[in-house]
Design goal:
343 residues; six-stranded mixed beta sheet; binds guanosine-5'-monophosphate; binds manganese (II) ion; DDH_dom; DHH_sf; Phosphoesterase RecJ domain-containing protein
Length: 343
C-alpha cells in the first residue's frame, strides 16, 4: 500500500519551504472541529521537530471536547489576541493553512492571512481550493486533513521521530471527521495509518470517550428535547429537520458545542437521506444551518443554492440571514426542490 501523496516536485518544494523558514504559523478554519485542531496540533509537532518557532492560530473558540488534547494551551485565538496575531502574520516566514479551502472560512483572520508576505502552504480535503498559496496539497478524497498530515509526515520520513503529541491529535481528527470511522473511511490506507499511530501507544478508546462521552446534563436533555419535540420528519422525502430558537437554547443553558453532532442523530431513522439543523444565533439575526446526507445526495449543492454555504457531499453548512421562521420556509422549499433526489 502506498501512503505517499506528494509528487516528486511537491515533496521537494515542501522540504525547501520548511528548510527556508524560521517563524512558522499553522492556521485552521473558524469554529474549528476535531480535524482542524488535530491537524494543526499534529503539524505543529512536526514543525517543532524541524526546529521551527511555530505558533498555532485559530480564528475563534474551539470546542470544550478538544481541550484535553496535548498542547492546546499553546493555541492562540485570533479573536482574543488580534494584535499579537497580526504581528505574527507580518513576521512569519511560512504559513500552513489546514482544513479549509477559502479565506472566508477563517473569518476576520482572512485579511491578515491574505496580506501576509509569508510563503503559504495549503493542506486540505475540501473541494475547489482557492487560498492563494505557494504549494497546494488538496485531496478531496482524503478522510480528513489529519490523514493528509500523517501521509506527508510519513513521506518526509519524520514519523519515527514523533511521539504521542503527534499521534493523539492526528488520530483524534481522523476519528471525528469520519464519525468514529463510520463514514468516509473505507479505504484500506486509513487503517494502515491507524495501525502506525497505535505504535505510539495512544489509547484510542480513551480518545473516543474524551470526545464523545463528555456531555453535560443540559446537553443530553437538549438532545432529548430536540428529538422528541422539535424534529419534523418528512417520510415521503426521506428527510428530517429541526429548528432551535435562541430562547430554547437558553432554556438548556446552551454553550458552544452543545449542538455539535446533533444533526447526525436523525440519520439513524431507517431510510433517511437528509437531515437539516437550524439553529438561531444567540445574539445576531442569523440562523446557522447544518446538513447531513447519505449516499449520493449532494448536501453541498443544497447548501450553496439555499443556505449561502457549501461543504462536502454528505456534510455541509451555511446560514440564513433572517428569522428562524424564514429559515424553516427556505428549508421546506429546499427539500421540495430536491424532491427527485430524495423520493
Ligand atoms: P457543520 O455542519 O459541522 O457546521 O459543517 C459541516 C461542513 O460543512 C464543514 O466541515 C464545512 O466543510 C462545511 N461548511 C460549513 N459551513 C460552511 C459555509 O458557510 N461555507 C462553506 N463553503 N462550507 C461550509
Ligand atoms: Mn476536515
Amino acid at each position: 500500500m502506498n501512503i505517499n501523496i506528494l509528487d516528486t516536485n511537491q515533496l521537494a518544494l515542501m522540504d525547501q519551504l520548511i528548510s527556508d523558514a524560521n517563524t512558522v504559523l499553522v492556521v485552521c478554519h473558524k469554529s474549528p472541529d476535531g480535524d482542524a485542531i488535530g491537524s494543526s496540533l499534529g503539524w505543529a509537532e512536526y514543525m517543532r521537530l524541524r526546529g521551527k518557532d511555530v505558533t498555532v492560530i485559530v480564528p475563534d473558540q474551539y470546542p470544550d471536547f478538544l481541550m484535553w488534547l496535548p498542547n492546546t494551551d499553546k493555541i492562540v485565538r485570533y479573536d482574543k489576541h488580534r494584535e499579537k496575531c497580526d504581528m505574527l502574520f507580518k513576521i512569519a516566514d511560512l504559513v500552513f493553512c489546514l482544513d479549509f479551502n477559502t479565506p472566508s472560512r477563517v473569518d476576520e483572520m482572512g485579511q491578515a492571512l491574505v496580506s501576509s508576505k509569508a510563503k503559504k502552504v495549503l493542506i486540505d480535503h475540501h473541494l475547489n481550493p482557492d487560498v492563494p498559496a505557494d504549494l497546494v496539497v488538496s485531496q478531496p478524497e482524503a478522510s480528513s486533513t489529519c490523514e493528509l498530515v500523517f501521509r506527508i509526515v510519513w513521506q518526509m520520513g519524520a514519523f519515527a521521530q514523533l511521539d504521542k503529541a503527534f499521534a493523539v491529535p492526528v488520530y483524534c481528527g481522523m476519528m471525528t471527521d469520519t464519525g468514529g470511522f463510520t463514514f468516509n473511511s473505507t479505504r484500506p490506507e486509513i487503517f494502515q495509518i491507524i495501525s502506525e499511530l497505535l505504535t505510539k501507544r495512544i489509547d484510542k478508546d480513551r480518545i473516543y470517550r474524551n470526545v464523545y462521552h463528555n456531555y453535560s446534563e443540559d446537553r443530553i436533555r437538549l438532545m432529548g428535547y430536540v428529538m422528541y419535540e422539535k424534529l419534523v420528519y418528512m417520510p415521503e422525502y426521506h428527510a428530517a429537520y429541526y429548528s432551535l430558537t435562541r430562547d430554547e437554547l437558553k432554556r438548556f443553558n446552551y454553550i458552544k458545542g452543545d449542538t455539535e453532532g446533533l444533526v447526525n442523530m436523525p440519520q439513524q431513522i431507517k431510510g433517511l437521506k437528509l437531515s437539516i439543523s437550524l439553529r438561531e444565533d444567540t445574539e445576531k439575526n442569523i440562523v446557522w444551518v447544518s446538513l447531513r446526507s447519505v449516499d449520493d445526495f449532494p448536501c453541498n449543492l443544497m447548501a450553496e443554492e439555499f443556505f449561502n454555504g457549501g461543504g462536502h457531499l454528505n456534510a455541509s453548512g451555511g446560514k440564513v440571514e433572517g428569522t428562524i421562521d424564514e429559515a424553516i420556509e427556505i428549508t421546506k422549499k429546499a427539500i421540495s426542490a430536491y424532491e427527485n433526489k430524495l423520493k
